[in-house]
Each structure stands twice: as structure tokens, then as C-alpha cells.
Amino acid sequence: MIKVVLIGTGNVANQLFQAWRTVQEVDLIQVVGRSEEKLQTFAPFTETGQVHQINREADIYILAISDDSVQEVAAQLNIKDKLLLHTAGNLSLDVFDSSQRCGVFYPLQTFSSSRQANFREIPICIESRDKDDLEQIRTLGHTLSGKVVEISSEQRQQLHLAAVFANNFTNHLLKISQELLVENGLDIELLRPLIRETTAKLEQLSPVDAQTGPARRADYGTMDKHLDLLKNELHKDIYRLISKSIQTNYGNKL
Q: Would the pTM count as exceeding 0.85?
């Protein structure tokens, strides 16, 4: 059994905790955090505490905290003989001291507190300086997911960037879509079948082949009408820039 201490009380820590609670191969012996209020969520199920109260009997310590805090908290822990992992997509191993047993345990998914993630379908990207430590991380990954992938820090940073385009930017565009509907007395439910189909067809088609719309067709009349309808100048800029990117990709020009 792998003994694990989770450091963090946010979405990633919560999702990992809930997933590992039902896994026999993992013993979550402690959750560490700064907020006593947030720690109360975990207290009925395991030991909780502050950084200075950390249980030093674990095999693996997982820093599921903000990117900006990883280096500072890792130094505070001062755990050299145990494996210390971060869960960040954009951080290399350089945030750890060179003498630290360390690695990466990066689940490639968006996490929200209102939804429980299905880790069996989530790729877990791993990395370590040491071959034996890497195998220990791989074993831990397979307790949750069937897809555990070793990638370098450089590859993971590019993957994280791609994920921002695929998820965060897409979600923001949907937020703009919702605003446009609400402003005109329309319901977001009207778009849901379209959103589902957009996602579903990417199971069979590449994004290049799946692209449709006025920019793809070079339908200038429709694009001009859309720009006239938009009142927010920032939204106009977004529309123009994305349309230009689409047309550049398909060999057309605005």
C-alpha cells in the first residue's frame, strides 16, 4: 500500500482525495492545508494539519497547490528522503531542490468542485529525475487511470498550453455566447445540442476537418453582419482575430 500525504485543499486536491478514498492500494494518511475551514472537509476521513504538522511517515507527498506556491512550500517541508510531487502543468522539476527526490503527477483535466471527475479516463502525465522514483509514480498513477504517460517538462508545458486553448479559451467563448443570448432574451439551452455535437464529432474528425462556419466559407457578408451586431468592442476584436486565424489556416484572407 502506498502512503500518501496531500498538500492542498483546492479543486485538484479534493478530486484526488475523493478518487483515492475508494482505492485499496492507496492510504491517504493526511491532508495538509492553511485553511482550518477547508480542512474540515477532509477531517472526518483522515488526519489533517498545517505544514509544520506534516506526517513524515508517507511514501509520497503531493503538492496540489497553486503554481506560485510550489517552490516555497516544497522548501518549507524539508523532506529529502521521500518522494515529493507537484501537479502543475506549467512547472518543471527545477522548482525542487537538486537534492530532492521529486517528480510530477499531472492529471490532464479541468476540475470543478461541483463535479466529480472520472479518473479512469484522465491521462496522468508523469516525470522524475530518477528511474525508480518514476516507476513509483507510474504505479501511483495506475491506481487511478489506465493512461499514465511519461513526458518531459518541455512537452508538458506545451501540453498545458494546448489545454488552455482547448478548454479555458473555449469555455470563455461559450461565456460570451451565453451573454449574447441573455441580452436578447434567448436561452443557453438552445446551444447545448450544438455544443454536444461540436465535441462529439471530434471523436471521429480532426479539428481541421471539423471546422465549419462563415470564416471557413469566406462568407464576408455574414461576418460583416455579425460584427455590426456586436456592441462590445473587445468581442469585435475576438471575432475578427479568430476569423482571421481560421481563414489563414484555410488559405483565405480577410
A: yes
